[in-house]
Amino acid sequence: MLSLSKFLSFSILLISSTAFAQPVDDEMAKLLDASLAEQETPEYTSATFKTTRLVNGHTNEQVAAGVLDFRISHRFGAFNTGAYNFFGLDVASMRMALEYGLTPWLTIGGGRSTYEKTYDGFAKFRVLRQSSGKKVMPISLNFFSSWAVKTLKFSNPDIKNYYTSNFYFTNQIIIARKFSDSFSFMVAPTVVHRNLVASVNDDHDLISIGVGGRLKLTRRMSINAEYYYQLNKPEGTVNSLSIGFDIETGGHVFQISFTNSPAMIERAFINETTGRWDKGDIIGGFCISRNFTLFDPRK
Q1: Which distant-in-sequence residues (6+ apart) come within 8 Å of 272 by Cβ?
Q2: Rounded distance, CA 172 to CA 114, Å?
Q3: pTM
């Protein structure tokens, strides 16, 4: 039969072991829950491309929610215009634009180009995002839709002209994949609708397929290339080919480009390019992008 002293010692030991074991069990449970939650959370791919543009065309990247992106783009004249035009630097066209992230999956924007005095607006939707972990998605997929109107005076004011004749509509699917930290690739099937065509035999809907890639050179610099192949090419035009360099400098991204396309929006650079690389119709240019955070949605 246990003595009173042995019974008290046994009771104290039991209570002490229970008290110390409880926090350990709680901590182990928390670690287990955190591990399971981490396994169930997909790991989304980021920075497939440096900005929302590869060179002229859009990428799968969206402007972050609550962020305003102010963009100034310049294109000069062709190199083959010679020393008289300072190899194209005496000639310049510009586009100024604002893009805003309404949500993580929706970006809207608009701009004005000196090329044919064009105004444009667009919306870009994120449909799929490349991810690994619990949810595996091998690609990113975005839908891009834009409207543009050129406001040049009509060439023949004596006939009845319609304002809507200068309307253009673009729809594009952007399929992108980041294969490694250094290389990304995208494909962009595109349809451009133009309200007015030169003759009844011309197509109102122009179909093209764009391809592009990014190769990272350093932590802050990459080389980009894009090519748009026209399936039903308007007479007198050629396919757009562009090469660019992205340089990240603190709060903004500086892009240098070389292209045969003087225009900087889809309806024009895809279907109205006439310059040829092999004839020296190479146009230099640059774009400066600066982001301003208007509000933080996490707050």
Answers
A1: 234, 237, 263
A2: 24
A3: 0.84
